[in-house]
Amino acid sequence: MSGFDKVVNSYEEAMAGLTDDMTILAGGFGLCGIPEGCISQIKKMGVKGLTIVSNNCGVDGFGLGILLEDKQIKKMISSYVGENALFEKQLLSGELEVELTPQGTLAEKMRAGGAGIPAFYTATGYGTPVGENKETREFNGRPYILEDSITGDFAIVKGWKADRYGNVIYRNTAQNFNPMAATAGKITVVEVEEIVEPGELDPNYIHTPGIYVNRVIKGDFEKRIEQRTVREG
Fold it and tell me: Rounded to an integer, what is the distance from CA 44 to the centroid of its chain?
């Protein structure tokens, strides 16, 4: 295989270089499309002082929630945090800094960061605490606030299929924040359900081109359901 081969064979190799006080962008929405193996490896490494950028922080005992157990996360930048009691406890005690961000703004912060755009204007959050102390400007009679983009030291992403060159396809709603996160990491690690040989993926259906990806690993996934509802009768 050529030097373009990005497949690694262990999570130790996948997350090599991660140290204290780094910023990590994590794909996922609830427990859907989360990079379970990368998160477990971060837990195992014991790194501290992390800033995590993700839609949410998992749940107690699973997903990003396991990183709260040993207080590895210093700051969360996220849009929804309502499924984690330990998160609430650390927030209220002042142990965890939280920057709540509107969901679409969070996605655009990562997308813009990956595209090399340092900031952008959005109407979302104007006139609310989200917009406090931020630059404002009016376009076509409507006020907007200036939001900074986001990049990270690492991006950890969950895909469905990838080839050895790092081209990635996501499956259905498990795509969520993963494509945006994948573009904005200095080191992007993608864990997938299946790795195929170059040329086997239809280029028309590739969501994340391999140019954004540094490491690919085949993972095993529990795919836990966050909220299960069944019909009575």
Answer: 19
Q: What is the pLDDT of residue 81?
A: 85
- Token pair listed for 128: 């609310």
CA distance 174 to 159: 8
Model pLDDT for residues 175-185, shown as the tens digit of each residue: 999 999 999 99
Give the Cα separation of 19 and 21 in Å (integer).
7
CATH code for the structural domain at 11-107+151-218: 3.40.1080.10
Distance CA 149, CA 114 (A): 9
Total residues found in the chain within this entry: 233
Low-confidence ranges of the chain (pLDDT < 70): 1-3, 226-228, 233
Contact 67, 40 (CB under 8 A): no
According to the model, what pLDDT value does residue 157 have? 98
Short-list 180, 46, 42, 171, CA closest to 101: 180
Rounded distance between C-alpha atoms, residue 225 and residue 233, angstroms: 22
Residue 10's nearest CA partner among 44, 50, 52 is 44
Instruction: Give the separation between CA 24 and CA 192, rounded to whole angstroms.
Output: 18
Show the tokens assigned to 68: 């709260």
| Structure confidence at residue 228 (pLDDT) | 67
The sign of the torsion formed by the CA atoms of 210, 216, 220, 221 equals negative
Of 193, 200, 186, give the one whose Cα is nearest residue 217.
193
pLDDT tens digits, 8-59: 999 999 999 999 999 999 999 989 999 999 999 999 999 999 999 999 999 9
Can you give the residue ranges of every domain in the chain?
Answer: 11-107+151-218
